[in-house]
Specification:
Blueprint: H1 3-31, E1 35-39, H2 50-58, E2 62-64, H3 84-97, E3 103-108, H4 111-121, E4 126-132, H5 149-163, E5 167-168, H6 181-188, E6 194-195, H7 197-200, E7 215-220, H8 229-236, E8 241-246, H9 252-255, H10 257-265
Parallel strand pairs: 1-2, 1-3, 3-4, 4-7, 7-8
Antiparallel strand pairs: 5-6
Helix pairs in contact: 2-10, 3-4
Length: 268
């Protein structure tokens, strides 16, 4: 065999090996199990997902339930720089630094605004978006602007009286639809104030809402928060969305963790 034939054979074999590695890598990527990233809402922290996280992990799933900057165990780090972009960056950083792919990204309440921003930036790492009784804030809107004017004024004035406008103090967890007195008491002890600037900074999207990812909305209807009724109706009759309901209050991860876990598991 002459030199040119040996060289051709070598490069052919190298090409086959590289293609094999690429095919194997792609196959593994497609077979990789989804990862759940659970994003809490206003006044809460990663702790609110404890029961759901435990049940998902018992099924063999990988679950992350981070706390957003300036809240819960990080409340002492709250300052005037914490805004909506901070919280979006929190989740983007978590996903990228842990090299997560096939992420089922779940946002509860205000967390819906956060995951919308995350999807706009890193859609390639995400599998689908799940909005749990969440705000659907469009480009240029903010979490405060979608509330009635009366509620906007109450939030702003309360924040000014609480800590000169840095944050909004937490309401009682009964407002989130919890009814058991012991659960209300224990939840109230863990709620912390919410950074006001995360409510007032507009969401800026460079791509269509959801960035072409599968969209799922879960409405909590017993009772339903008035501000969220519009989103339940919007998604229920929209072919771009898959719509589900839970017969419980707003904090379904606390009041109905078994049923919510089963529903989240069905999205794999």
């Amino acid at each position: 065999m002459n030199y040119y034939k040996i060289k051709s054979t070598f490069f052919y074999l190298l090409f086959i090996l590289l293609m094999g590695d690429s095919i194997s890598s792609n196959a593994q990527n497609k077979l990789q199990k989804p990862v759940y990233v659970l994003v809490h809402g206003a006044w809460h922290g990663g702790w609110c997902w404890d029961q759901v996280s435990e049940k998902l992990r018992a099924e063999g799933d990988i679950v992350y339930a981070p706390t957003l900057s300036g809240m819960a165990e990080d409340k002492d780090k709250l300052d005037s720089t914490v805004n909506l972009n901070t919280h979006i960056n929190d989740i983007v950083k978590l996903i990228v630094e842990n090299d997560l792919h096939h992420v089922i990204l779940v946002g509860h309440s205000y967390g819906g605004v956060v995951i919308s921003g995350v999807a706009d930036r890193i859609p390639g790492r995400l599998e689908k978006l799940v909005f749990l009784d969440a705000l659907l804030v469009e480009n240029g809107q903010n979490a405060l602007s979608v509330n009635p004017k009366e509620s906007q004024d109450v939030f702003t004035q309360t924040a000014m009286g609480f800590d000169k406008g840095l944050s909004i103090p937490a309401p009682s967890s009964a407002w989130f639809g919890l009814t058991d007195s012991l659960v209300i008491k224990s939840t109230n002890m863990r709620l912390t104030s919410h950074p006001l600037r995360t409510f007032t900074q507009p969401l800026i999207l460079k791509h269509p809402y959801g960035n072409h990812l599968p969209l799922i909305y879960i409405a909590c209807r017993k009772p339903e928060l008035a501000v969220l009724e519009q989103y339940a109706q919007k998604t229920k009759n929209n072919k771009a969305w898959k719509y589900y309901e839970l017969e419980t209050g707003h904090d379904a991860m606390i009041s109905m963790p078994i049923e919510l876990t089963a529903l989240l598991s069905s999205f794999k």
